[in-house]
């Protein structure tokens, strides 16, 4: 059985790490290079870097910043934001990324998933899905949660799986930054539906939430931001806590 993964996330705006609540009210959280180095040293299993306004502002991810973060860590590194074509993927892999995360561009052009997977390998292609629970089900959103689409979470995730994505990174917009736990009901549905790993995002507030996302939500990995950035949860202590529940985790 594969070990469960703990993944800090650097949400980047204007070259700085930021964190908000429900995708708004952003506040500064520190230098991404220093945070990346700290998480690598603390024993994080992977690191995710998301240029959260690249798609909205119609520009490319900061390649130089990616390069500087990559030079200071020794764990797998996923980069997302403003990736629209294969050349963007190649540029980021050359800068030190191990995987890329595509979100808005995949919804607009689903064939991009097939292209990235066939050209670079499925293991490079993470499809991020920002979804909000509505009266008619879990709807997917574009451009950092700004634009509602006609796609539904479970249908779209299954299509991404079938097109060759290597992982799904699902962020519940309802749970983002509110620290009341992950969207475990939706997560367990995803894990039963898909044949690829599911990374849970949105809702971490205390160690119990990580326990529950693995035991109840059946997620393969748990991503969090502010609880790590602001020192509310320390990764080594979190991993020891999870081990006490017999959750398979790398110490």
Task: Explain this structure.
With 251 residues, the protein is α/β, with parallel strands linked by helices. The protein has one domain: TIM Barrel, CATH 3.20.20.70. It is built from 11 helices and 12 strands. Helix 1 packs parallel to helix 3. The longest helix has 11 residues. The radius of gyration is 16 Å and the shape is globular. The model has no long low-confidence stretch (mean pLDDT 91).
Nutshell version of this structure?
The chain is an alpha/beta fold. The chain contains eleven helices and twelve strands.
Question: Can you identify the CATH class?
Answer: Alpha Beta
**For the residues shown, what is the average pLDDT?**
91
User: How many domain units?
Assistant: 1
The total count of strands amounts to 12
Shape designation: globular
Oligomer: single chain
CATH architecture: Alpha-Beta Barrel
The percentage of residues in β strands lies in 25-35%
Layout of strands and helices, then pairs:
Elements: E1 5-13, E2 16-21, E3 24-30, H1 32-42, E4 47-51, H2 54-57, H3 63-70, E5 77-80, H4 86-94, E6 99-102, H5 104-108, H6 111-120, E7 125-134, E8 137-142, E9 147-152, H7 153-163, E10 167-172, H8 184-193, E11 198-201, H9 207-215, E12 221-224, H10 226-229, H11 235-243
Parallel strand pairs: 1-4, 1-12, 4-5, 5-6, 6-7, 7-10, 10-11, 11-12
Antiparallel strand pairs: 1-2, 2-3, 7-8, 8-9
Helix pairs in contact: 1-3
Descriptors:
11 helices, globular, eight-stranded parallel beta barrel, 28% strand, 251 residues, alpha/beta, TIM Barrel
């Amino acid at each position: 059985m594969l070990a469960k993964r703990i993944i800090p996330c650097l949400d980047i705006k204007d070259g700085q790490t930021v964190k908000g609540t429900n995708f708004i009210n952003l506040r500064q959280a520190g230098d991404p290079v220093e945070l990346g180095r700290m998480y690598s040293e603390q024993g994080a299993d992977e690191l995710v870097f998301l240029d959260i306004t690249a798609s909205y502002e119609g520009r490319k991810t900061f390649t130089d910043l990616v390069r500087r973060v990559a030079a200071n860590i020794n764990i797998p590194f996923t980069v997302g934001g403003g990736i629209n074509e294969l050349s963007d993927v190649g540029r980021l892999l050359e800068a030190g990324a191990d995987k890329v995360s595509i979100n808005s561009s995949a919804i607009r052009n689903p064939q991009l998933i097939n292209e990235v997977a066939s050209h670079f390998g499925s293991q490079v292609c993470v499809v991020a899905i920002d979804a909000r629970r509505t009266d008619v089900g879990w709807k997917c959103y574009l451009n950092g949660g700004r634009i509602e689409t006609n796609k539904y979470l479970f249908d779209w995730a299954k299509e991404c799986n079938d097109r060759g994505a290597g992982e799904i990174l699902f962020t519940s917009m309802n749970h983002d930054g509110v620290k009341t736990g992950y969207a475990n009901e939706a997560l367990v549905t995803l894990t039963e539906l898909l044949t690829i790993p599911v990374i849970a995002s949105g809702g971490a507030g205390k160690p119990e939430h990580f326990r529950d996302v693995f035991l109840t939500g059946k997620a393969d990995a748990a991503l969090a931001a502010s609880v790590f950035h602001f020192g509310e949860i320390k990764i080594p202590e979190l991993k020891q806590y999870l081990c006490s529940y017999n959750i398979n985790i790398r110490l």
